[in-house]
Amino acid sequence: MANGLEVKETSRIEAFSDGVFAFAITLLVLYLKDPASMGGTSLLQGLISQWPSFLAFVTSFMTILVMWVNHHNMFKYIKKIDTKLMFLNGFLLFFVVLLPFTTSLIAGNILSSSAKVAAAIYSGALLLTSIFWYCLWRYASRENSGLLQPSVKRDHVKKITSQYNIGLAFYFIAFAVAYFSGLASFGMVLLIAVFFAVTASIARV
Amino acid sequence: MANGLEVKETSRIEAFSDGVFAFAITLLVLYLKDPASMGGTSLLQGLISQWPSFLAFVTSFMTILVMWVNHHNMFKYIKKIDTKLMFLNGFLLFFVVLLPFTTSLIAGNILSSSAKVAAAIYSGALLLTSIFWYCLWRYASRENSGLLQPSVKRDHVKKITSQYNIGLAFYFIAFAVAYFSGLASFGMVLLIAVFFAVTASIARV
Amino acid sequence: MANGLEVKETSRIEAFSDGVFAFAITLLVLYLKDPASMGGTSLLQGLISQWPSFLAFVTSFMTILVMWVNHHNMFKYIKKIDTKLMFLNGFLLFFVVLLPFTTSLIAGNILSSSAKVAAAIYSGALLLTSIFWYCLWRYASRENSGLLQPSVKRDHVKKITSQYNIGLAFYFIAFAVAYFSGLASFGMVLLIAVFFAVTASIARV
Amino acid sequence: MANGLEVKETSRIEAFSDGVFAFAITLLVLYLKDPASMGGTSLLQGLISQWPSFLAFVTSFMTILVMWVNHHNMFKYIKKIDTKLMFLNGFLLFFVVLLPFTTSLIAGNILSSSAKVAAAIYSGALLLTSIFWYCLWRYASRENSGLLQPSVKRDHVKKITSQYNIGLAFYFIAFAVAYFSGLASFGMVLLIAVFFAVTASIARV
Questions:
Q1: What ipTM did this prediction achieve?
Q2: Whole-structure pTM over 0.90, yes or no?
Q3: For a FRET experiment, which of A99, C188, D133, D135 has its CA 20 to 30 Å from that of B70?
């Protein structure tokens, strides 16, 4: 097919993904509650007692933001898509869509006796996200796939792959840590997002 | 009109449809509940007892994803739109928008005595979706419509039409099965989505 | 500025509007409730007793769909935007955003003693929508605005203006009718949407 | 990289931002309630007693609309983005996403003894928004950043910077005023939005 059609293909998968990222990141706010509507204490005390909800909101927001930036950077290298790539991207988005739910789970249970289970679900969903992320990239960047921009060198592909491996390893550790401490696992997910935001801003990905 | 304007037309109906697909797929998550907020059992038991909600979430997510991929592939062949096509596409989106609601119905009733009614509504809405899908494609692909890319051959149009017929037949069967068993009808909708995801990824549509 | 930049301007106001249209149309579904979650009767009886919600859902969906199609057609004629046009479009979107709320009002009150008030609010908000619509079009299409495509003839502008006047008149009547009967006013809004969908599909706007 | 790729980059960050703006502006409507569903008085009385919710809805809608128009105008000058700019834009969007929540806080508490705290949070979040806005613009417009359109003159950059400074100063005053009166601070935020809408429409930014 002509070049014009290929450009159009990529732009639509990006638009759909952007919609899901933007919507999931905005839905997070629905889980923050006005203390006044729950009765009881003063506004400030009510908000302070909700700190797990705010921390979970910040953590998930940062995580989706890092993901969106990386998705953006990844698709800069992709010039063509096929149906398999659309489904791999769709499975990735499945876990993005799930994030507002797992965020509400961690916010509501991090101080309870179910903290470990909640943290395992929260970090486990992100681990699965990074696994599908890895599959998506491997599929698009495999030699002779014809899906990458011809200007992208194999060395550069390897460098990007190893960066994704770091994310995979980090989320695996956060998932494993949930076995010992819910709070530590949760804190690690926040640190991962901050780490990626800082390194991505400094380094030229 | 000039070619530039026609390209713009198609891109906006795609953007609007992408928005509706992306929001509908993300709204599904609002029907998953934190067991802690409902009181009672432990987190893990609470989640396991919600399995119909998760299964319905996965089924509807996969169904919308398959639809989006097919919508994407269909509009690759369409180079021009008119008002009638915009409305046919709009009626199709009506049932996409309805899906989060019918998903909550099937999730909430699949284990109750209303399982058959819920499954009939769930699969019936998808049957109507595939009927409008069929009308949309027939309208766009009818001979001398002037809406398709000139490079698309009649043979190829027929091949695509027969693929859409399969979807129509499958959803009709799922709808009919609801008369006998709600669970069987629900399971069939899940199988249809998996079937289309697998065949679409293997075959070159 | 160069032509490339102007094209970009129009495409972004369309993308933002499409987002709001698509989101508002999808939010409508959140007001449909699973009867099982409200206790009481069987699923089917529960759904049937909710008929005002479904009718309001269909009416508002059709109304937004007609608006989106017309917005699409209007912006085909606009080649350039300025800040005033962005705000006029924003005020128009204000009432689109409000529609899920007025829809829930009409659905919840059409059978109560507040039916007339609810219908006046519902049709009144749509009347205001069509007033801002009219202002937006008059602003863009005024002579020597430089915002329209140069290929658009004055005769054609007048024809479009008179079509928008019909919508304005219809919604004014629906608003006035609410003084006598809520149901009649509500039914009229549904008829207006159907009327515009049918005429738009037949006539070449 | 080629010019084509750079255009694509800007268009995607705009699409993602548009998505977040459009969803946040539409989510505001979810906090308006049907008085019938809350029991008690007549529809009209119930709506009138909810006036803080409507005023907060209008204020936040106008604020997001002004922001979107300015975001649109700012990105007209930006021809290229990098990862740091994507994150600065992301932090800005964090506060846009938070706005439906702070809007519900101000609506629910403006008449209670917590009015000052609610107004401080509401205006404080907007102050932070304008601080990140300022950082984003300074980063993009710093000399030799290579991110601006080459046609943008330094004088023009300075003029825009000083306009953003006005917003910063206004929100700082609204935040400071909250220490004395919640209502006055809230009213000032509404006035700021109206002021920017009027001046932006008159002046050519």
A1: 0.86
A2: no
A3: A99
